[in-house]
User: Which sequence fits this backbone?
């Protein structure tokens, strides 16, 4: 049973526009949610997080929204840049461990 | 700081062979973990350790052993490699407690089992 679901394997966006990556979860015990970014042949790097008691967190061009009633979170990137092209993983944290989604490959076209 | 280092970067094994994937961190992190990434499967937790001498199983532990004799090192052992263990393996570390934000990943080891 997938506890964290990223239903869109890929997303293509024009440079300068908004990228919206979505994530759904089933585990009500998650106390933290995180987004990681991964380039080919590299390890994932932390991007932004949100506590389960918040509904929004911003960091520069990146904003994460959490809707607990819908068990849904989203990552907004504004404006999108070609360097944002990567695979983005959503993860839920519970009891110190992370459960990752399958990832969404974002392509930002110049 | 070198961060999290992993060796080797690439490895090809034959079915039944054993090997150890090395992971080291120089950040004095208490928590270390191993993940595997398969196409279309995201990252799945294999084993983790909350401190030296303490290890526990993650989501997919079968076929793998770990030990944590020092804070710095967390090797992953494949006792008898199988083709199903062909994957990219990532080691990660962070401070203890629930400091999820500060989990740092190594560059990965790409393992192929023939």
Assistant:
């Amino acid at each position: 049973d997938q506890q964290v679901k990223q239903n869109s394997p890929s997303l293509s966006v024009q440079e300068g526009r908004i990228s919206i990556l979505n994530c759904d979860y089933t585990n009500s015990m998650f106390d933290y949610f995180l987004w990681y970014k991964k380039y080919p042949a590299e390890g994932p790097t932390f991007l932004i997080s949100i506590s389960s008691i918040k509904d929004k967190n911003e960091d520069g061009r990146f904003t994460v929204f959490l809707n607990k009633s819908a068990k849904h979170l989203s990552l907004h990137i504004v404006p999108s840049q070609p360097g944002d092209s990567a695979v983005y993983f959503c993860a839920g944290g519970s009891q110190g461990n992370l459960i990752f989604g399958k990832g969404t490959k974002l392509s930002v076209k110049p | 700081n070198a961060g999290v280092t992993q060796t080797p970067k690439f490895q090809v094994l034959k079915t039944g062979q054993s090997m150890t994937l090395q992971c080291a961190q120089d950040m004095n992190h208490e928590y270390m973990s191993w993940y595997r990434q398969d196409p279309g499967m995201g990252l799945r937790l294999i084993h983790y350790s909350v401190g030296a001498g303490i290890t526990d199983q993650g989501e997919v532990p079968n076929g793998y052993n770990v030990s944590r004799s020092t804070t710095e090192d967390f090797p992953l052992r494949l006792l008898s490699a199988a083709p199903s263990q062909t994957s990219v393996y990532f080691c990660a570390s962070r401070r203890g407690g629930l400091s999820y934000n500060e989990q740092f990943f190594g560059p990965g080891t790409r393992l192929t089992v023939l």
Remarks:
- The longest strand of chain B covers residues 42-51.
- Chain B touches chain A through 27 residues (CB under 8 Å).
